[in-house]
Structure formats: structure tokens, C-alpha cells
């Protein structure tokens, strides 16, 4: 998809949205027809000895049917679910990406120290009427719903349960005791923005802090915020208002504007140079934002258990053996796998929604209607997202052999005897093939 998007931008000055979904997908198929043979021509020139009659393409009808079949089966076994969670969001590609698609780059930046006034006349142990929090992303102040201090910190432990008034939006937010706040780091006070930071998201869940999304999918400040409880349900516990001067600002322009506004209020304590690690998308090449979105997930820990055991008991062997350690380290600390992508090219998620927001999963719309007794008067729309390309790739060892049909090829060639691969995709591909087989 990225190749064709760049092509039409360079040649026609258009985006995929100018074409619309169906017409843009037609453009991709056209490009595939023109360029798809390049790989096989190169393989032939290299002298690869393969059975060319068994060539398969990820979007072939047979493979597409296998993908839908696996999705439906896993969903019915409660191994696939849809939830509102924090993901790595690429504002350029406007899609979620996996942790493994994030490049962390060292950078020189700043740490802004900001005063948060204490509410109700409260004072710190040394008599101050404010807390100082430090942040490298001051624009996210607009989404704060708490301040964390270490429960053992003598400077602040008596303030746990009290409140501060958030600058710029006058939001009354609680002071919570959490070990995430390091007494030896910075001021010891940590601003908590559950909708825009992965650590804060976990702190927020522990203390039932609301989540306030302040960014659009393009990475701009929203006109009104989205407020949710910890379960992802819409909430009115806080106002969704965002000051007019920040609305629609690009995120880094908003950073400057927020700092200037805080300084004008006399609440900017100091600015210090700071070495930081900044996450970039490996495809889009822009800074990634933690974003609260609705996505589809695989319960990876359940699938990982037998996959680990298969290597432990020798059913599957890594050569060289040292790469087993890499495999185990990933699999034993595995997180639920976000499998939805906000793209147009790929296997579209086989889920449909009615006007009340109910979700129905099935191989086809007709199947969904029959299984759920939905008449023609019930309008259904299919999920717009597509599956992570590694989802279909994980099925490769059997989807290419005609599964779910019990074909001669499946009986003869599955399970696989030897898989030659680079170590860099052990988790992207190899581990997921083992999990899905």
C-alpha cells in the first residue's frame, strides 16, 4: 500500500482518500500485475529449485478463506477479542503498529518542570502550595488525570488522596500513591496521562483514573477531548473541553503553545536539557504516539504456552541452538497481539456491526445473518480495518497447502520439516507460525 500511495502522490498529487477505498485497491492490484513477477524472475535467475506450479500469493482466494476461517475459530474460542487499549500509533500512516515495528532513537531534548497548584489549601512537607512535575511531552498536560508519588516518599506521602488543579484546563485531579513514581528521579512527582503513555496507562488502571484522548489520528490536538473510564466506556466524569488556542494544532506546535501558556501563568518552574529515547515508526518514519483506539487482539499468552513447550521438549529445534534463548525471552514475556491495522490493502476483518454497535463475526455476511437471525431490514457494515500482514503469514505452513480442506498436499507436506529464516523475524514470523499451527 505504501508503494502505491507514494506513486500516486508523486505522479498525480493525490492520496488514497482522493480515490476512495475500492478504486485505490484496484490501483494496488494493477501495480501487483505489473510488478508482482519481479520476485519470481529474480528467484529464477538465482537458480532456485522450487516447484513453480505451487506458487501462492497472500491474497489468493484460498489463502483468504484460510485467514477468515482461523479468525472465526479463534474468536469463537475467545482467543480473539476487540478492545479499547493503548497502541503504538503512526500519525503518518494513520494506523496502529506493533512494538517490533518501532525504532527507538536517541535524541537531545528538554525536560520541562511544571508547577501543579495543590487544591483545597493543601501544602507539601516543606510548605509549598504546589507540586512540580517533569515531562518531555508538555502538550499531554491537557490529558492528565492524576499525579503519582511514591507511597514511601516522606515529602509527599501525606498528600496521597488530595488533589491538584491542572494548569490550562482547571481540572481537579487526584494525587495517587504508586511505585511507578521513583523517589530518586526528578522531583518524585509524575504526571499521569493514561491515554497517551504506556506506563501511565497501567498506573491509571491500578487507580481507576479516567482516560482522556486529546489527539486526532493525524496527531493534531482535538477540538474536544474523548473521555473514557478504565474499561473504555465513554464517561462524563471530566469535561471534554480543550482550550480554543490549542485546538487543531499540530502536536509539536501544540507543545510550544502549551509551554508558552504555562509560562505566562507563572507555572513553568524550569527547563533542563535532557537525553531521551524517541519512538519512530520503521515504515512511516515519524514519531509514534501512544493512542487509545479500538483494536482487535489475539490472546497471545494462551497460544504461546504450547509453542514454548514444543521447543522445550525438542519437537521443534533451532539451529544454531543459541536462538532458542531469543525465542524464549520473547514468548515468556508476550503481550496480547494487536492484529488490526487501519489500512485498506490486506485481509479485511470478517466482522460486521449493526446500527446499535453490536458486533458479529463470521466468514461472510450471509453466514452472520443466518447464525444471528438477522433479517434484511437489519443494516450491517463490515469492519473497515484489515489484519496485520503477519497474521496471514503465521498461517503460511498450512494455508498454502489447501487448509481447511484435508488435501493430499496438507497430509504429505505438513508439518514442515525445515524452515530457513533470518534471526530478525524469529518473533515476527517463526514464533507466530509455531503459535498458530
From TrEMBL:
The GO cellular component terms are: cytosol
Q: Where is the Aminoacyl-tRNA synthetase class Ia domain?
A: 1-437
Which Pfam families would you find in this protein's record? tRNA-synt_1
Q: Per its record, what are the GO molecular function terms?
A: aminoacyl-tRNA deacylase activity; ATP binding; valine-tRNA ligase activity
- Would the keyword ATP-binding turn up in this protein's UniProt record? yes
The alphabetized list of GO BP terms reads:
valyl-tRNA aminoacylation
The EC number(s) this enzyme carries: 6.1.1.9
Q: Does the keyword Signal apply?
A: no
What keywords appear on the UniProt entry? Aminoacyl-tRNA synthetase, ATP-binding, Ligase, Nucleotide-binding, Protein biosynthesis
**Which SUPFAM superfamilies does the record associate with it?**
Nucleotidylyl transferase, ValRS/IleRS/LeuRS editing domain
Protein name (database record): Valine--tRNA ligase
Amino acid at each position: 500500500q505504501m508503494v502505491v500511495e507514494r506513486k500516486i502522490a508523486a505522479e498525480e498529487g493525490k492520496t488514497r482518500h482522493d480515490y476512495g477505498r475500492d478504486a485505490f485497491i484496484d490501483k494496488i492490484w494493477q501495480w501487483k500485475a505489473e510488478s508482482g513477477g519481479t520476485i519470481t524472475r529474480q528467484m529464477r535467475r538465482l537458480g532456485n529449485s522450487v516447484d513453480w506450479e505451487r506458487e501462492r500469493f497472500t491474497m489468493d482466494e484460498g489463502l483468504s478463506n484460510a485467514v477468515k476461517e482461523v479468525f472465526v475459530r479463534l474468536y469463537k474460542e475467545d482467543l480473539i477479542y476487540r478492545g479499547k487499549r493503548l497502541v503504538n500509533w503512526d500519525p503518518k500512516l494513520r494506523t496502529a503498529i506493533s512494538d517490533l515495528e518501532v525504532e527507538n532513537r536517541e535524541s537531545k531534548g528538554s525536560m520541562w518542570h511544571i508547577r501543579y497548584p495543590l487544591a483545597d489549601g493543601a501544602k507539601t512537607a516543606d510548605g509549598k502550595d504546589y507540586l512540580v512535575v517533569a515531562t518531555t511531552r508538555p502538550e499531554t498536560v491537557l490529558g492528565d488525570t492524576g499525579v503519582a508519588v511514591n507511597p514511601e516518599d516522606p515529602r509527599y506521602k501525606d498528600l496521597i488522596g488530595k488533589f491538584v488543579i491542572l494548569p490550562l484546563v482547571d481540572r481537579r485531579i487526584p494525587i495517587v500513591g504508586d511505585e511507578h513514581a521513583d523517589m530518586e528521579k526528578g522531583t518524585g512527582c509524575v504526571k499521569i496521562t493514561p491515554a497517551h503513555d504506556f506506563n501511565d496507562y497501567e498506573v491509571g488502571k491500578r487507580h481507576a483514573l479516567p482516560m482522556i484522548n486529546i489527539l486526532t489520528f493525524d496527531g493534531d490536538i482535538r477540538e474536544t477531548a474523548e473521555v473514557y473510564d478504565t474499561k473504555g466506556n465513554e464517561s462524563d466524569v471530566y469535561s471534554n473541553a480543550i482550550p480554543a488556542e490549542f485546538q487543531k494544532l499540530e502536536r509539536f506546535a501544540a507543545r510550544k503553545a502549551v509551554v508558552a501558556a504555562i509560562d505566562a501563568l507563572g507555572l513553568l518552574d524550569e527547563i533542563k536539557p535532557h537525553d531521551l529515547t524517541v519512538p519512530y515508526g520503521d515504515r512511516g518514519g515519524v514519531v509514534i504516539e501512544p493512542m487509545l483506539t479500538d483494536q482487535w487482539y489475539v490472546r497471545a499468552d494462551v497460544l504461546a504456552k504450547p509453542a514454548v513447550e514444543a521447543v522445550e521438549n525438542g519437537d521443534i529445534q533451532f539451529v544454531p541452538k543459541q536462538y532458542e534463548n531469543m525465542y524464549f525471552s520473547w514468548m515468556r514475556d508476550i503481550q496480547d497481539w494487536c492484529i488490526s491495522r487501519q489500512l485498506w490493502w490486506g485481509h479485511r476483518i470478517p466482522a460486521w456491526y449493526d446500527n446499535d454497535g453490536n458486533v458479529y463475526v463470521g466468514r461472510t455476511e450471509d453466514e452472520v445473518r443466518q447464525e444471528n437471525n438477522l433479517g434484511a431490514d437489519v443494516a450491517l457494515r463490515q469492519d473497515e480495518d484489515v489484519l496485520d500482514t503477519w497474521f496471514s503469514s503465521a498461517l503460511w505452513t498450512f494455508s498454502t497447502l489447501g487448509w481447511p480442506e484435508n488435501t493430499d498436499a496438507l497430509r504429505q507436506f505438513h508439518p514442515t520439516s525445515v524452515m530457513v529464516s533470518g534471526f530478525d523475524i524469529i518473533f515476527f514470523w517463526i514464533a507466530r507460525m509455531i503459535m498458530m499451527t
